[in-house]
Design goal:
By secondary structure, the protein is an alpha/beta fold. It has 3 domains: about 55 residues; about 55 residues; about 80 residues, Ribonuclease H-like superfamily/Ribonuclease H (Nucleotidyltransferase, domain 5, 2-Layer Sandwich). It has 10 helices and 5 strands. A 5-stranded mixed sheet has the order 3-2-1-4-5, with helices on one face.
Length: about 240
């Protein structure tokens, strides 16, 4: 073989290799799809894009591996690590607050989850301190909420260790805008809280739903907060 023939062959290989570097991801996907489809010979695909047949086969293998990964049975690898979380004291504090406020977990529930899932001991006192440490911040956030969009209010009293707690929440969103422990659930207690919510946060529902008790109704009327409709729920 003459020197000129060798030089010419190297030039062709160089051009083929060089062309592959300029193909973007979309073009590589097209090559892979055509190779997988099998309707066009590999040599024709290589010639069309000025690349080697080896390059075409490489794109085909990549695409086949991606398809296999996408449709593989994930349950066959239950021990595969999906991701790592840097566990810090601040992160554990967030978990405690999330369990209490999002999952409505009890203090004991938080302790058991930390023990069984994290293999980490946390006392009931620590859980209590974390919650109360963030109460003031939670109150500040709650006081910034715009309650003017509350159209239907649900008002009632619940009891915690025998002490009355005044409760008010939005019927549509279930957002709780009133939760206050009181010495008594009389009209004055209701009136003070409802007026405060009305003046500071715009609470003015179209109607409220209250049980047969008179305290909440009187509290609304006493301070001029007579909403258009106040209904009494009944059991079906």
């Amino acid at each position: 073989m003459s020197t000129s023939t060798i030089d010419n062959s190297n030039s062709i290989n160089l051009k083929v290799s060089h062309a592959a570097h300029f193909l973007n991801s979309t073009q590589r996907q097209v090559i892979a799809k055509q190779a997988i489809g099998g309707k066009i010979p590999i040599s024709h695909i290589a010639e069309r894009y000025a690349v080697s047949r080896k390059f075409v086969y490489e794109q085909k293998v990549k695409a086949e591996e991606a398809i296999h990964e996408a449709f593989s049975d994930q349950s066959s690898e239950p021990d595969k690590v999906l991701f790592y979380i840097p566990v810090t004291k601040k992160w554990l504090t967030q978990v405690v607050l999330a369990l209490i406020f999002i999952c409505r977990a009890s203090y004991q529930g938080v302790i058991e989850l930390f023990r069984d899932i994290f293999d980490f001991k946390i006392s009931k006192g620590s859980v209590h301190n974390i919650v109360h440490e963030h109460l003031q911040k939670a109150k500040e956030i709650n006081q910034l909420q715009d309650l003017s969009k509350v159209r239907a209010g649900l008002h009632d009293e619940i009891y915690q260790a025998g002490e009355p707690v005044l409760v008010g929440c939005c019927a549509r969103s279930t957002y709780c805008y009133l939760l206050s422990l009181e010495e008594s659930c009389d009209a004055n207690s209701w009136g003070v809280h409802l007026l405060d919510l009305h003046e500071k946060q715009g609470l003015s529902p179209d109607f409220t739903v209250i049980d047969g008790g008179k305290a909440a109704r009187c509290g609304q009327k006493k301070l001029g907060l007579t909403y258009p409709h106040t209904e009494t729920p009944f059991m079906l």
